[in-house]
Structure formats: structure tokens, C-alpha cells
Design goal:
The complex is a heterotrimer of chains A (382), B (178) and C (179). Chain A contains 16 helices and eight strands. Chain A is an alpha+beta fold and 382 residues long. Chain A is globular. The relative contact order of chain A is 0.19. The mean pLDDT of chain A is 89. Chain B has 178 residues and is of the alpha/beta class. In chain B, strands 1-2-5-4-3 form a five-stranded mixed sheet. Chain B has a two-stranded parallel sheet with strand order 6-7. Chain B has helices at 4-14, 34-43, 120-130, and strands at 21-23, 26-28, 51-60, 63-71, 98-105, 109-111, 134-136. Chain C is 35% helix and 17% strand. In chain C, strands 4-1-6 form a three-stranded mixed sheet. Chain C has a three-stranded antiparallel sheet with strand order 2-3-5. Chain C is elongated, with a radius of gyration of 25 Å. Classes of the chains: A alpha+beta (382), B alpha/beta (178), C alpha+beta (179). Chains in contact: A-B, A-C, B-C.
Chain lengths: 382, 178, 179
């Protein structure tokens, strides 16, 4: 589709094709946009992806079910715990495995900590795209380090956690887990208040972000957009509330919904979602029961993955990842390896409307619109 | 609340002569009628499946199959007395996701549902790129993840990788590297 | 509301962070590596190592090949040892791990039935050669049980107790068999 050119009878102009090329500090990875410009205004935008394609789906066909768990960490490499969660949920649906109570609570705590990690990184880097050169990133990363240190103490690695197993989690949490999470819950709101004082009322931020990149509601539903982008456009759809997977229906939390669907709404919704995640963490830590951290069948499957067979059939498991709806579609033919393994990645599908949002805007706006969609190239290209 | 059998009977009543089968928990729909059925599923007020979540191309060696997962985002919304919104739960409650599979032969053609649900745009391009299914009616069908000019379809079962990685334990003799 | 108040409030936050970073440890989180180091966490997993009990000759590995089969990127190569007649022994002759392929997932440690391979903490392993230098052979991978107890005390205590139980059970079995 094309944006209509403004008629200018005295001056003869041409359209300029510019390549916001794969090597660019603001495209959040190796991502290319072919942009056709009229002056400074965008008239066409075609994204080109596939620079980080590692053929993850074919690799999983040659690997046992547990063997592709470390590879799911590397899909959306910032939030590795939620990727593991979605994959474990899909396999548990396929093989009808039960998960004990304590493992469910630990999973929810890890998923909400990951949501904090992801949203704080996005707020930092969106401000980086706007030109606030690294000060919000520094403040955001200072808080993020505390959560990553906690991940390292529990699972062994800061980012590629490989912590979830089918039927539970890999090891039990350490004895200082609950005091540390409680410390995070106590300190994070103060930090969020400070960040909001720095950013949310800033006139420069408001002038650059409000009414830029508006996404209407019908287009969002039709194009399959999910996650904070959908909620910022005014659609009240959150998979934690709709599906109620795992034990999310036991927690009381609200879901923020935006009005206009511009870049400012998408930024502000993430700040509000972080506050809601802290509420869920608070309730989960109070209720964490004793018990086993993995079921018997799951422990057997983790000790010898080469004997873990899933029954014939197919299953689709989805969660509310911090970026949107992350789903895994597995087809099994009764052996130890999956027959077909497909990842429904939110960043890939959220990019469908990039062109629609950018038409008529300036080049600098295209950068912040891309930043507010929140893409991670590991997930887009798999 | 409808079950799969009820949906099958309803569709067979609406579109005479279409032979739908139920396999596991998914509907198998013949590809000639798929476009009309898709439009009916989206627009009819009983179903309102307006959110296409995932499109997957699967290669069984004699035929290929495309699996669609449909959700509904538009049930009747109720506003509570204090103005808060009652959560959108699926209209066909307990039925979501509705899994639909459409079959075609190995290098066959399929109707594209991009005019109906725009979320299929990139996913159908990916199914064409990796499995080799042609979609008729797609606005811009070209490769998306592999580069232009790549000849094969990687996710087919008979795909042989051209340039092999090095065997574990062998090391290339590259001049300049120790 | 004067225009520009939001920017001024933001600048006060930055000034507060700048001034307080001279006084509180919380605001200045730089660690002067390599003179200062962050304390190691027990469960931190980097590359694997093989474990021996008393002498490097009696390593726990019996060359069952399970870790090589389960490794997702297939970076382990094992060849079983055999004595002079050609009868296979329960020991590996060749045990190679290619550190340029290994992705530190920890699955080899989880699936080993004999508790013979564990994840190490060392990460300062830079080499000049890209290929052969990063392929670690059996001798480079062997480390003692005392080293394991030093870096991971809780896990070492648990594994030692388990092995003692197993040895005691075997002894009572042999004694019962003999009488």
C-alpha cells in the first residue's frame, strides 16, 4: 500500500530508497528495513528478516524432547524462563503430565520475575532510541542485575537458564530464595517511582511519543497482534486471564488497558504491568507450599531423556510471554523425537503492522515505533 | 457450548456436500471449500473466530498439511456496575483453540486466508519458504527467512544440507590460524 | 504548570543519582575487575570436568557413552579403553570435549548415572588458537574430588553421602553372599 504523495508543482522531486540496514545500533539486532522516502516522510516500508535464522525447528526434529530445552532459551534470549515455560506446557499437554504444587508456584514466580526483567530492559532501550543516551539504560540495568543474580544463584546461569523440566523444575530453590525475592519486591516500587519521575512527565518524551504510531483496534485483532501492544490499543485480552494456565487464576491482579495505541501508551502500559507483576510475586511468595519440585514421571524423563516417549497426537500450548503470545505446536508420532515442532513467536507476527503504523511518519519516528513493538531477533528469525 | 461434532454438523449443514472429518481434536476440511468456511467462521455471530493464532506447515512425505489454530476474541462484553470490564473469555468456551487441518499434495496449491485474517501474511510466507506450499491469493508470496535465490525447502523430510558443518573432532587447516 | 517542569524534575533525579553515588554503595555498582571479584555462586555452571577420587587413574567415568548421546550440540567424543587381549575395560581411552561447541547447558551432569561429570566454575579460558586449543582431552578435564568439594560444597557433600551409602550396600551384599 502507498501513502499518497503531496503534489508540489514547482519543484520536481524523487522518491529516495534508503536501507536502514542490518547493521544498525537501533534496530535491536540484525534487522533490515527498506524504506522509500519522500523528503523525510515514509511512503513505503518493507522489513527484511532472516539474518539470524538458525533453523531451530529443524534442529528439534533431530533431538529428543528434553534436548531442545536449552535451545528454547536462545529463542527470545532476554526472557529465557518464559520460553522454557511455554515449551514445558506444550509437552505436558501432549504427554498428559501432572505438575506438583510447589513447582507451579516456583514457575509462576520465575515467569513474573522474567516479565520484570524484560519490561525494564524495554523501557531502557526505548529511551535509548529516543536519544536519552544511556542514562535510563544504566538505571534500569542496575535493578535488572539483582534479578539476574537471583537467576544465577538458582539455576546456574544468568540468561540461558535451562531451568524447567517436563513435570516441574530442574532443582529446588535455595534457602535464601524467599528473602531475596522479598527484598526485590520491597525495593522495586521505589525504583519504579524514581524512573517514572524521570520519564513519564518529561515533555520531550510526550511530544515525541504521543500520537505517533497509532494502531487501531480492529487492525490489531485482525493482524494477530498480542501482548502489551494489543492491550495498548484498547483490547482487553490477556492469556493469563483468558486461559488461566498453570495457577494464574489463584492470584488477584489487574491488567492495564490503553486508550490510543500510540508509542506513549505502549511505554506506559509496561510500567503499569511491572507494578502488577510485583503484586503477583507478593502473593505467590506468601503462599509458596512445601512439597516436591518435580513429579515422578518428570524426574524419570529428566534422568533419561532418550526413553521419554510422547503418545501420538498434537498439542498447542501457549503462554503470555512478556512480548505477546508465545505458542509451541508439537506433532508427535510416538517416538522419542518430535515429528514437527513449530514456534509461534510474538515478535515475528507483531511485525506485520510495522508498515501500517509507520506510513506518513518521519524516519526518526520509525525507529521509536520499532522500539516500542519490542522485537528480539532471536525470536523473529528463530 | 459447542463440541467438535456439533460444529462439524453445523458446517455440513451450511455448506452442502463438504466432507469434514474429525481426527483427534481437530477438523480436517477439504481445501476447495476452505476459504468459504473460513469466512463463515469469522463472520457468523455464533462463532466469531476473529483471531488466527498460528499457521503451521507440516510435511508428511506423501502430502503436506497446514494446521490453523483459531481463537475468538469477541464474546459479548459485559460492563460491571463499577465500570470495570468482564474478562473476554472465548465464546465457544472450552473449544478454543479450534484446530483446523487442510491437506494438499506435495507441491500443491492452497487458498490463502490472508484476505480474511491478516495475521496469516507472514506465517504463510514462512510455510512457503520452509515447506514449499504455494498459497493462491497471497499479496506478496516470497521467501522470508531464507535468502532470495535459495533453491530448496529446508523443513521437508528429504532435505539434505548442502554445506556440512565440520565433524566433531576434525579441524580445518586454515592458513593464518593456529 | 510551567512548561518544562517534567524535564526539570527528571534532571533532579539524575542529579540525585550522581551525588549519592559518591556516598552509597547502592548507586555505584562498579566492580574493579580483576582486582575485585564478585563472590562465586555455587550453582554457576560453565564448562564440564571429569572427577576422580584418589588418583587420576581411578576416575569415576566408566565410558558408558550416555552423556555423549544426550549432549544437544554433540560436543563429547568417547572411545572405550581395552586391555592387551582386546577385551573392553570400564574406562575411557579418549574423552574429548570441544569447548567451542559446548553451550554450558548442564545436561551431561544431569544424566550421568555414575556422578562422573560435573560443571566447573572456571571461565577465564581464553586461548589463541581457534580450533585445536579449545578441544580439551581427558587429561585436561580431570579434577579431584577435593576441588569439587571446594567449589560446590553442598553438592559434593550430597554426592559423597550417596556414594558411601552405595559402597556400604555393596559390602553387606558381598558379605551376605559369602556367608
Amino acid at each position: 500500500m502507498d501513502y499518497t504523495l503531496k503534489e508540489s508543482p514547482t519543484l520536481e522531486t524523487q522518491m529516495l530508497e534508503v536501507n536502514l540496514g542490518p547493521q544498525h545500533p537501533s534496530t535491536h539486532g540484525v534487522f533490515q528495513m527498506n524504506v522509500t522516502l519522500d523528503g523525510e516522510t515514509i511512503t513505503r516500508l518493507k522489513p527484511v528478516m532472516g539474518y539470524l535464522h538458525r533453523n531451530h525447528e529443524k534442529l528439534a526434529e533431530n533431538m529428543t524432547y528434553l534436548g531442545s530445552m536449552p535451545f528454547t532459551d536462545r529463542l527470545d534470549y532476554i526472557c529465557s524462563m518464559t520460553n522454557n515455560f511455554a515449551y514445558a506446557l506444550a509437552v505436558e499437554k501432549l504427554a498428559n503430565l501432572e505438575v506438583p504444587e510447589r513447582a507451579q508456584y516456583i514457575r509462576v514466580i520465575m515467569a513474573e520475575l522474567t516479565r520484570l526483567v524484560n519490561h525494564i530492559l524495554l523501557v531502557g532501550f526505548l529511551l535509548n532510541d529516543l536519544g536519552a543516551f544511556f542514562t535510563p539504560v544504566l538505571y534500569a540495568f542496575r535493578e535488572r542485575e539483582k534479578i539476574l543474580d537471583l537467576f544465577e544463584a538458582i539455576s546456574g546461569s544468568r540468561m540461558m537458564c535451562n531451568y524447567f523440566r517436563f513435570g516441574g523444575v530442574k532443582v529446588d530453590v535455595t534457602s535464601d530464595f524467599i528473602p531475596r525475592v522479598r527484598q526485590i519486591i520491597n525495593n522495586f516500587p521505589k525504583f519504579l517511582d524514581e524512573l517514572e519521575t524521570l520519564l513519564s512527565e518529561n515533555e520531550i518524551l510526550m511530544a515525541r511519543c504521543q500520537n505517533v504510531g497509532i494502531l487501531p483496534e480492529e487492525l490489531a485483532i485482525n493482524a494477530g497482534i498480542t501482548g502489551p501492544m494489543l492491550r495498548a490499543s484498547g483490547v482487553p485480552y490477556d492469556i493469563r486471564k483468558v486461559d488461566g494456565y498453570s495457577i494464574y487464576n489463584r492470584f488477584k491482579f489487574r491488567v492495564p488497558i490503553g486508550e490510543t495505541g500510540d508509542v506513549y501508551d505502549r511505554y506506559y502500559i509496561r510500567i503499569l504491568e511491572m507494578r502488577e507483576s510485583l503484586k503477583i510475586l507478593d502473593q505467590a511468595i506468601k503462599e509458596l507450599p512445601d512439597g516436591e519440585f518435580i513429579s515422578k514421571a518428570g524426574a524419570l524423563g529428566a534422568r533419561s531423556p532418550r526413553n521419554f516417549k510422547a503418545p501420538k497426537g498434537d498439542a498447542y500450548g501457549r503462554i503470555e510471554a512478556p512480548k505477546g503470545e508465545l505458542g509451541f505446536y508439537l506433532v508427535s508420532d510416538g517416538t522419542i523425537k518430535p515429528y514437527r515442532y513449530h514456534v509461534r513467536s510474538p515478535s515475528f507476527i507483531n511485525l506485520t503492522v510495522l508498515e501500517d503504523m509507520c506510513l506518513g511518519q518521519k524516519v526518526a519516528d520509525a525507529i521509536i515505533i520499532l522500539g516500542s513493538i519490542d522485537i528480539v531477533l532471536g525470536e523473529v528469525d528463530r | 457450548m459447542k463440541s467438535l461434532e456439533q460444529i462439524k454438523e453445523d458446517l455440513e449443514r451450511q455448506f452442502h456436500g463438504v466432507g469434514i472429518t474429525i481426527e483427534g481434536s481437530s477438523l480436517i476440511i477439504p481445501k476447495e471449500k476452505w476459504l468459504e468456511i473460513a469466512r463463515y467462521l469469522k463472520d457468523s455471530p455464533d462463532y466469531q473466530f476473529d483471531f488466527l493464532s498460528s499457521v503451521t506447515g507440516v510435511d508428511y512425505v506423501q502430502h503436506t498439511e497446514v494446521a490453523y489454530h483459531l481463537y475468538s476474541m469477541a464474546p459479548p462484553i459485559r460492563q460491571n456496575a463499577d465500570g470495570s470490564v468482564l474478562w473476554r473469555k472465548s465464546a465457544a468456551d472450552g473449544l478454543c483453540p479450534l484446530t483446523i487441518k487442510v491437506r494438499t499434495e506435495r507441491d500443491g496449491h492452497m487458498p490463502s486466508v490472508t484476505p480474511i485474517w491478516r495475521s496469516a501474511e507472514y506465517q504463510e510466507r514462512e510455510a512457503y519458504d520452509l515447506v514449499g506450499i504455494q498459497f493462491d491469493g497471497h499479496p506478496d508470496l516470497r521467501r522470508i527467512l531464507m535468502w532470495e535465490g535459495f533453491q530448496h525447502h529446508p523443513l521437508r523430510k528429504d532435505y539434505v544440507q548442502e554445506d556440512q558443518d565440520r565433524e566433531v573432532g576434525t579441524f580445518p587447516k586454515v592458513p593464518g590460524f593456529v | 504548570m510551567i512548561f518544562g517542569l517534567g524535564v526539570l524534575k527528571g534532571m533532579m533525579v539524575t542529579l540525585k543519582n550522581f551525588v549519592l553515588s559518591y556516598f552509597t554503595k547502592e548507586r555505584l555498582t562498579t566492580v574493579q575487575y580483576p582486582e575485585e571479584r564478585i563472590p562465586e555462586k555455587e550453582r554457576f555452571r560453565n564448562f564440564p570436568f571429569l572427577i576422580y577420587d584418589e588418583k587420576p587413574e581411578d576416575l569415576r567415568c566408566v565410558s558408558c557413552d550416555i552423556c555423549a548421546k544426550e549432549c544437544p550440540p554433540k560436543c563429547i567424543t568417547i572411545v572405550r579403553d581395552s586391555d592387551e587381549q582386546g577385551k573392553p575395560l570400564k574406562r575411557p581411552k579418549v574423552f574429548d570435549i570441544d569447548f567451542s561447541i559446548c553451550m554450558n547447558c548442564g545436561i551431561c551432569e544431569e544424566v550421568c548415572p555414575f556422578d562422573a561429570i560435573f560443571m566447573d566454575h572456571e571461565f577465564e579460558l581464553a586461548e589463541y588458537g581457534r580450533f585445536e586449543d579449545l578441544n580439551y582431552h581427558k587429561d585436561d578435564l580431570l579434577k579431584s574430588n577435593e576441588y569439587f568439594a571446594k567449589i560446590r560444597p553442598q553438592d559434593a557433600a550430597r554426592i559423597d553421602a550417596k556414594l558411601r551409602e552405595k559402597a556400604k550396600l555393596k559390602e553387606t551384599e558381598i558379605r551376605g553372599h559369602n556367608t
